[in-house]
Fold this protein.
Amino acid sequence: MADYRHPPLPCPACGYRLDAAVNVFGGRAPEDGDYSMCLACGALGIFTLSGKAIRAATKLEYERAWLDPEIVQAWQALQQAKALSRDWPTGPGPT
Ligand SMILES: [Zn+2]
């Protein structure tokens, strides 16, 4: 896994400003069509514009995501971490 910093991109669901991504499938920057998972709310998005924007995932993209054990595991880990935290970030994040 590798961390990639990118310009702040708002989560399409909650407005939290995402500024980093972790590619769980390999060492490369986000590309168009890659899933994004919001740290604040857990919503799924899709990278667009060569990784410079995130749009909301469609219903079909959500259905496909929930068939991927790694995405499900990442979402469950996020929910568990949120449940254990008293000050988990919420959207919209700092401007
Ligand atoms: Zn969000």
